[in-house]
Amino acid sequence: MSVASIVLKSGYTNIQYQPLPKEADCSEDTESAVTPEGYLPDLSTVLPGSNEQQRLLTDEGEANVPLQTDDPIFNEIIAEAERAVEDGILPERIYQGSSGSYFVRDRDRKTVGVFKPKNEEPYGHLNPKWTKWMHKMCCPCCFGRSCLIPNQGYMSEAGASVVDTKFGLGVVPKTMVVALASPTFNYNTYDKARAKSIKFATERFPDTLGKNMKAGLPPKIGSFQLFVNGFKDADYWVRRFQDEPLPPAVHKHFQHLFEKLVCLDYIIRNTDRGNDNWLIKFDKDKLDTPEECIHVAAIDNGLAFPFKHPDEWRAYPYYWAWLPYASVPFSDETKNLLLTKLKDLDLVQELIDQLYGLFHADKGFDKTLFERQASVMRGQILNLCQALEDKKSPLQLVQMPLLRIERRRDGLSSRAGNNFIQRFQDKYPFFSTC
């Protein structure tokens, strides 16, 4: 089936086919687009224009985060983590990775989540990893990923959870944006001195200052992902499965879980999916019940939702594409789970609206870049629709031409219908395998 026919069946109409513009010519990418009726809201009426250069390099006003989520169970886990900090059970820094991230525990000292503060991300000014600081200072031209918005990793983590829930994939541990404070987080000297002074003052004058001043360090905004127990790196289990093959029923279920991971990564265009940051849980004592025997968890989703496809030095490939499971055509189970949803224009629009509501809470939000992120995701969804209908394999999926589905910018009224332009990528990175 051709790409054009998929577009029409998916609800996109009046498609114009144009190559992706050169990076040097970005005028069309930065102008305001016409909003088709029933698709993306007029962002200019929702949020005033923001300056990309103000993005996320200071502590002041990082995000407008509500005190509680709409999930009471998640709220209770966060409240329990805060009580644990008050009792001296502090989050523990994870020394792997390129940014500050922490195992958060409850009062029983059980790990309940992973917290990643925004200002301790690789671009954050409080990143505790000195190797990344040296990288940024000594080789800024090679630092970061030009296709991603800097310091949006915590939003990307939460956004992946939104996509996972919307399509019923069930492979991302629930992740939301929260605010937490702990002495083990990396604070600057001013915040530490201020907290110490306020603590002294409130303890010295509890009936006066103690009633009017809030003691403690300022909360940090970041992503909080629920911890999954009993999982190991996929690389470990994949090697084991090559030497000790799974029973057919368990293998079939694992293939379906693997395909869910593939679909998630492809939709959000994850630029950092190695076999060490997705997890497998395997219980050989439950081989008779495949659904309970093996599970998959997609963690570390902070480098996704690019505003363009990689087109400079590195391609940031999906490393699962080299696994034998990626050569197997998508199963009917995966097709039945996703194809109808992916072709539902209203559902895709609801997803984009949800991501907009999440991302725009950040003070560095840029509506033009968000629209470019949405255009990349639309293109990924379009390719995935075609791959599922044609019974392609995950490996064939990642070999399909890269494209973006953009809203038309010809000055037509939004009442003209769902008008989109399909742009194919004509610029590719220098290295294709890293």
Description:
This protein has 434 residues and is of the alpha+beta class. The chain is 37% helix and 13% strand. It has helices at 3-9, 27-30, 43-46, 72-86, 130-138, 153-166, 189-204, 209-212, 234-243, 248-268, 290-293, 332-342, 345-359, 367-389, 394-398, and strands spanning 13-19, 92-93, 102-105, 111-117, 175-180, 220-226, 232-233, 278-282, 294-298, 403-407, 419-424. A 5-stranded antiparallel β-sheet has the order 2-3-4-6-5, sandwiched between helices. 38% of the residues are buried. Mean pLDDT is 82; it is low at 1-61 and 412-417.
Keywords:
globular; 434 residues; disordered N terminus; 15 helices; three-stranded mixed sheet; five-stranded antiparallel sheet
- How many strand units? 11
| Overall average residue pLDDT | 82
Q: Distance N terminus to C terminus?
A: 31 Å
Characterize the overall form: globular
What radius of gyration results from the CA coordinates?
A: 23 Å
Structural class: alpha+beta
Portion of residues within helices:
25-40%
Which blocks of ≥5 consecutive residues have pLDDT under 50? 1-61, 412-417
Helical stretch count?
15
Q: What's the arrangement of secondary structure elements?
A:
Blueprint: H1 3-9, E1 13-19, H2 27-30, H3 43-46, H4 72-86, E2 92-93, E3 102-105, E4 111-117, H5 130-138, H6 153-166, E5 175-180, H7 189-204, H8 209-212, E6 220-226, E7 232-233, H9 234-243, H10 248-268, E8 278-282, H11 290-293, E9 294-298, H12 332-342, H13 345-359, H14 367-389, H15 394-398, E10 403-407, E11 419-424
Parallel strand pairs: 1-11
Antiparallel strand pairs: 2-3, 3-4, 4-6, 5-6, 7-8, 8-9, 10-11
